[in-house]
Design goal:
The complex is a heterodimer of chains A (123) and B (169). With 123 residues, chain A is of the alpha+beta class. Chain A has helices at 7-26, 87-90, 117-122, and strands spanning 32-39, 42-48, 55-61, 66-72, 76-81, 93-94, 100-103, 108-114. Chain B has 169 residues and is mainly α. Classes of the chains: A alpha+beta (123), B mainly alpha (169).
Chain lengths: 123, 169
């Protein structure tokens, strides 16, 4: 190992890991409040998680392609997409505030918003 | 001669990025690739210099878009590739760095570049939260591609006299 990794390399690795942890910590692990579907940066639809009864399938058909999103009171999951790599489906179910599902070929972002800390303080 | 060699490396890079889908079907994180093509970028950077490395990255992105991925993927691969290359050129100036450090930096900036493009195209800042997982994955693949690049360059240097443009040990 010593042959391939120098002390400077280790420093680089540590810096990258620390940055990653900061990004991960940026995820606010609060419970979600709303599921937002965005297309081209504009809000396409939004759902209040508390009011969703059972599970609901949302069919999103746009000029970029077709997706099906399954939402319930706990979160959202992409169940169908006609994009080539199906990365959005592999991302699985999102349940916490700040988590996202991205379908880049279809310019689609699904994310959960939560009560921000500021709101909580204000209350 | 040089043009022919660069052409060969571009072909090799494209073949590797195609092959890694079958060789490494395990997904570390959705949308994340091992980035075997980055090995080629590092080799060309070390053996033939900055200009050649840029031409490899840019031509590879254009050809991949034309042949496989489609033009909607072009900004991602182009921006990711250029960000990775620029970061690797800068970090390689640091004393004592080896190929592992360079490869990890390249992998991280490749992801940073792509996530930035995604955030711009979809005008959504939340996408950056995904960088945490991708960053950790970059370290894993960087270790792997860095070691391989080092071994390859040692071998290539035997055939390329005066190729030590970059004095990385």
């Amino acid at each position: 190992m010593r042959k391939y990794v120098s002390v400077v390399d280790l420093c680089v690795i540590i810096v990258v890991l620390v940055l990653s942890v900061i990004f991960l910590a940026g995820l606010n692990e609060a419970d979600g409040e709303k599921i937002i579907i965005e297309l081209d940066g504009e809000i396409y639809a939004s759902y209040d998680m508390k009011t969703i009864v059972g599970s609901k399938e949302i069919h999103i058909k746009t000029k970029y392609g077709e997706n099906k999103l399954l939402i319930d009171k706990n979160g959202a999951e992409m169940v169908y997409s006609d994009c080539p790599e199906k990365i959005d489906i592999k991302q699985g179910k999102i349940t916490k505030a700040g988590q996202t599902i991205v379908c880049a070929p279809h310019h689609l972002v699904v994310y959960i918003t939560g009560e921000s800390e500021y709101d909580a303080v204000a209350k | 001669m040089k043009v022919a060699k660069i052409g060969m490396f571009i072909a090799l890079a494209m073949a590797l990025s195609w092959a890694e889908r079958f060789l490494f079907p395990v997904v570390i994180a959705p949308g994340f690739k091992i980035g075997l093509a980055n090995i080629i970028t590092i080799i060309v950077l070390v053996l033939y210099g900055v200009k050649s490395a840029f031409s490899v990255v840019i031509i590879r992105s254009l050809l991949s878009a034309l042949l496989f991925a489609g033009f909607s993927s072009l900004p991602y691969s182009l921006f990711g590739g250029v960000a990775a290359l620029l970061s690797m050129i800068l970090i390689s100036k640091v004393k004592g760095i080896t190929f592992v450090g360079i490869a990890v930096t390249g992998a991280f900036f490749h992801n940073l570049g792509q996530v930035t493009v995604a955030a711009i195209i979809m005008s959504n800042i939340y996408i950056f939260t995904y960088l945490g997982v991708l960053g950790i994955a970059s370290v894993v693949v960087g270790l792997f591609t860095g070691v391989i690049s080092g071994i390859c360059i040692k071998r290539f240097k035997k055939y390329e006299k005066g190729a030590e443009i970059w004095s990385i040990k």
